[in-house]
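pinging the channel bc i need a second pair of eyes. not urgent but kinda urgent?? the chain im working w is below, pasted from the shared doc
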Amino acid sequence: MNPLMYDATVKVFDRSLGALAAILDKAVAHAEAKGFDPAILLNDRLAPDMFTLTRQVQIACDTAKGAAARLAGIEVPKHEDTEATFAELKARIAKTLAFVDGIPAAAFSGSEDRTVVLQIRKQDVTFAGRTYLFEHALPNLFFHITTAYAILRHNGVAIGKGDYLGAR
């Protein structure tokens, strides 16, 4: 087994999505302290052509569960995109982490060379597992978590680099 592929998948996803969940808690606390409904933040976005905070969290979760499943050679679970509250987004993160954490490390054996085929913009794109993880899945995960962070920071939520990096 290649422990790098397991560590770069499961351990990175655990920490990153855990940090995202904690940032969402801070967003709710911020809204409550300022006297406004936290739900207002869910539909905010950085620019008119970007996804909302809710969608950023959903895509981060989809990226993590999809990458872990594809690299482990198992079916990607389907999660409906129905979250409408911070509690529901946190539940989605928890469900994603439970799935990712439930994949045994041995399932990642040979994953660096496993063929991964994704449909991107209506075209099939083929990756070797290692390339998929390091050049597609991880950058995609970090992009959506960073964008969620930026939406909340832009709205005055007191979060910083330590919040983004998560607990050690």
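so The two ends are 25 Å apart (CA to CA). and The longest strand covers residues 115-120. — does that match what u expected or am i reading it wrong
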